[in-house]
């Protein structure tokens, strides 16, 4: 009975812990979505009055904007995204320099200005790192972000950033089976689903060896919830054994208290 009770509480605590991880992922997602919403509105307001491109770039550097340009009317047609006439439009994530190392990824915000096209390029790798660095789940859990093509936009492992998630894990741990996390990524994260689960890795931060992790994930609709085809996925992961250690400690304390009460009752009955 004690063993069944222990397992029961382990499952409850794991579920509650993953639910807390899910809250963290949602918070990161909402903050990123709010960041792009701010940039869209800032550019829209700025475009309604005379402005200097270099001054605007200097103002937005700290928000991840790496380049702003104005395209002349004759060059606009092939660059006009659908719906841009109605206001700022955010593009899909892309690589501006595919052969550049380390790999970089951008998202553009485009809007018409006096018959021309303003293009604001956001450094996605830098931006995602700002929203994930310092995130802790439990004792050592961390967050990572992946785009819908399967490339890491942010990760604790620096070598993973910009790399294909399905390939880079295999290179780091060639003897480890990543079947479960690959399936989770392919069927859930890369299709914009939200949920919680677990998988096995070959490391966690500085630890080595087979490590079972809890994972929570949710989509980031960086172009707005009205553009459901433009998303990334943010995940928060933590080793299960960190949670089970806490569970074992709590159960031990519980039984210690119960034992103490029984002894006290026995002593009281004997007097």
Total DSSP helices:
7
General shape:
elongated
Fourth CATH level, the homologous superfamily of the largest domain: PAS domain
Rg from alpha-carbon coordinates: 24 Å
Strand order of the largest sheet: 6-5-9-8-7
Q: What is the name of the CATH topology of the largest domain?
A: Beta-Lactamase
Name of the CATH first level of the largest domain = Alpha Beta
Q: If you average the pLDDT, what whole number results?
A: 87
Based on secondary structure, the structural category is alpha+beta
Largest sheet: 5 strands, antiparallel
Q: Which architecture of the largest domain per CATH?
A: 2-Layer Sandwich
How many domain units? 2
Low confidence ranges: 255-260
Beta-strand proportion: 15-25%
Using DSSP, what is the number of strands?
9
Pattern of helices and strands: HHEHEEEHEEHHEEEH
Q: Could you tell me how far the N terminus lies from the C terminus, measured between alpha carbons in angstroms?
A: 32 Å
* Helix content estimate: 40-55%
């Amino acid at each position: 009975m004690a063993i069944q009770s222990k397992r029961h509480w382990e499952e409850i605590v794991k579920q509650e812990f993953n639910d807390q991880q899910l809250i963290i992922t949602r918070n990161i997602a909402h903050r990123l979505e709010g960041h792009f919403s701010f940039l869209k509105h800032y550019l829209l307001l700025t475009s309604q009055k005379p402005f200097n491109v270099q001054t605007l770039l200097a103002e937005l550097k700290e928000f991840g904007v790496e380049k702003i340009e104005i395209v002349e009317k004759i060059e606009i047609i092939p660059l006009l995204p659908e719906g841009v006439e109605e206001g700022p439009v955010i593009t899909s994530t892309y690589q501006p320099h595919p052969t550049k190392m380390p790999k970089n990824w951008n998202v553009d915000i485009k809007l018409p200005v006096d018959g021309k096209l303003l293009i604001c390029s956001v450094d996605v790798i830098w931006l995602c790192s700002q929203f994930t660095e310092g995130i802790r789940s439990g004792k050592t859990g961390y967050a990572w972000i992946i785009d819908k093509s399967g490339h890491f936009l942010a990760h604790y492992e620096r070598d993973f950033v910009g790399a294909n998630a399905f390939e880079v894990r295999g290179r780091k741990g060639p003897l480890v089976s990543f079947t479960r996390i690959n399936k989770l990524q392919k069927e859930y994260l890369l299709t914009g689903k939200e949920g919680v689960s677990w998988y096995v890795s070959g490391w966690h931060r500085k630890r080595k060896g087979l490590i079972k992790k809890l994972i929570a994930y949710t989509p980031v609709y960086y172009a707005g919830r009205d553009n459901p085809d433009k998303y990334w996925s943010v995940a928060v992961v933590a080793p299960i054994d960190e949670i089970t250690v806490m569970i074992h400690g709590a159960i031990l304390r519980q039984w210690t208290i119960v034992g103490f009460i029984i002894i006290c009752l026995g002593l009281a009955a004997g007097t």
